[in-house]
Amino acid sequence: MTTQKIISYNVNGIRAALNKGLLDWVKKLKPGILCIQETKAQPEQVDLEPFRKLGYLDYWHSAEKKGYSGVLILTTLKPDNIVIGMDQEDYDSEGRVIRLDFGDVSVVNVYIPSGTTGDVRQDLKMKFLDDFLSFLTALRKERPNLVVCGDFNIAHKEIDIHNPVSNKNTSGFLPEERAWVDKFLESGFIDSFRKINPETVKYSWWSFRSNARDKNLGWRLDYHMVTKPLADRIQDAGIMNEAAHSDHCPVWMDLNT
Q: What pLDDT digit, counting tens, does each position of 138-147 carry?
């Protein structure tokens, strides 16, 4: 078996992140698979030729609405199969899910909706969560070895958020959202970061307000979730707080493939 570094990164606009040195960062780390969320771009709007020269193939699922949402996988490994979306138009029009199959392992890159803009989007988020879990449950019958990575827009436990008491009624830490993560894990997934770092307090997102990043007033919203058959193949996992191309930072996992 070989070990692959899989990184997940919400870049909050890939063009903005490229202007902040994303390419040099990728050159230095050379991950085998880089799952990007919130591209906020169509493929023709981004020059990825420098990544291709590094040996990366690129697979996109952009939102129909320009400058919004979107997921992208950059990979040095050629996938056996590429599946765009969940075959559900309401979500697929927003560019939220892409899956690549590599041998017996499937990598699913997801950008779960935010509910911070009001009740309508919070309702959509809760519906997406249920539909996404149903989608994965069906997929696992065909592809049992899943890596599901991305921005879940939910801090799971009190350890995953800087101020759990004052945020208990805030989207991203609502009891029903946290209960969904419980259900997700109970359905047969492992939180790779917590498997390796059960007690570590580390965050992957900070508000742009109030100097939150400098004060480390953050939330852990980004995950690599793997199905239980892959648990013993997780070699290491962590969060790269030093990377600063976005309001998020990358999360990573080393997996035997």
A: 999 999 999 9
Number of domains, the chain? 1
Q: Token digits for 51?
A: 């990544």
Q: Give me the CATH number covering residue 43.
A: 3.60.10.10
pLDDT tens sequence across 106-127: 999 999 999 988 899 999 999 9
Q: Pick the catalytic residue: 47, 92, 130, 151?
A: 151
pTM over 0.85: yes
The residue segments making up the domain with residue 231 are 3-256
Portion of the chain with pLDDT greater than 90, in percent: 97
151 is catalytic: yes
Residues 6+ apart with CB under 8 A from 179: none
